[in-house]
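Ticket #4471: structure export looks truncated?
Reporter: QA, pipeline team
Priority: medium

Steps to reproduce: submit the single chain below to the structure queue and open the exported record.
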Amino acid sequence: MKKTVIFLLALMCRAAALCMDGPTGTLPVMHIETQNHQSIVSKTEYIPGTYFIVDNTTPDMNIGTETSPLALEIRGRGHSSWKGLKKPYKIKLADKMPLLGMNKHKHWALLKFYEPTVAGMQLGRIMGMDWTPTTKPVEVVLNGVYLGIYLLTETNRISKNRLNIYEQPNWNEDESSIPYGWLVEVDNYYEFNQISFRENNSWFMRVTYHSPDSLSVAQRNWLLGEFQRMNTAIYDDDKTRGEWEKLIDVDAMARFFIIQEVLDNSDGFHGSFYLHKDWADDARWVAGPLWDLSCNQRAKTDYTFKMPTSYGFTPHWIGELIKDDDFCAAVRKAWEKFYPQEIEPWMEYIDEHLQPCGEAFEQEKILWNYTSPATLAERTEKLKSALRANIEWFNKHLPGHETPIEEIVYTAKEAVKVEYVNMEGLRSSRPWNGVNIKVTTYDDGSISTTKTIVNH
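Actual output as written to the record:
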């Protein structure tokens, strides 16, 4: 019975897709064809296939052609997202490619198009995280069926063109090198490549190891012991001792905390909470890279990790970290670099990176039966309003009492002049067709520049 229902749903989705006009072409279009048009039903087994990308706005970004596609492998990915009708995918190219101008690599993901992801990843770059994945909106056609908009996304991996740190080998037995070159994730799902331990009297902590992904007994013992040591130090009743700061980068954790609060992302210290550790004499665990970002878009009345959610919620570590004066001081220091000078450029980035998706989003709404009739422009304004409200709430509730800073009263800057510069250096008050540099002058004399693509 279950298989019959799934089959009928698939037929309904395919029928809906066939009723559409197909890709709008206002965004790059990624065409994927699996071998013998096999359905993608596994999150662990790759299916061979081919792909090509057509970018009508920037033809230089085209990769492969319909007659000469390139090879890839594709599988499903995600946890709760995999249960939805619109599936996310993991892609492994046969050869490293710089898809849509992003850094050359083999490994990519096709994630559900979600405005907070676009906004949040840019916030990670603004806050100076070690490395943050880049996303590009694309329309996807799979085996001839139009699937709507996805975010083609760099995946969290250790490599030269991603998180550029030392990578420890699998099955390592050398105790001198085992403490270095890790990428792990504090997870809210059970995985086979995982350690777990009791964090406190109420819950356990699961840590999924991504790199290395196959551990020797020595590696597993070290990783478990390392996290238990960090956990003990974080839960130390004497918050002046500061032992956890010898193991974890305080400034990076403070920036990570700010990002979760500004986004009001309940999963920030709950799941998809990545940490990495390079090789250096004083190497410490560093928060990031970011992944799986969301924005509750609710009235913020407390720190996000204290606010209720509609699902089981386990805020790892942050409840203890915020009691530590050094952590609070680091948060306030990082906040001064963000507030208020980075707010308007961030809002402009959100506008300019989501605006080109408007036409394709109208198709997306029909294809996947969105219940809200709101346009993408309306959704973007709602998101920006929520982010602004979160920013103002957080600015009035900066943690810590021992290191007070002068309260800043933020007044939104008003743009007094906007010019668009094309690739030939010509200026205009209206955007040129193609790639533009938007130059905005504000009433306080400051200037911001952002890149935008317009398809008349």
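Status: closed, not a bug. The export was complete when the record was re-opened. Leaving a note from the reviewer for reference: Confidence is low (pLDDT under 50) at residues 1-19, 402-412.
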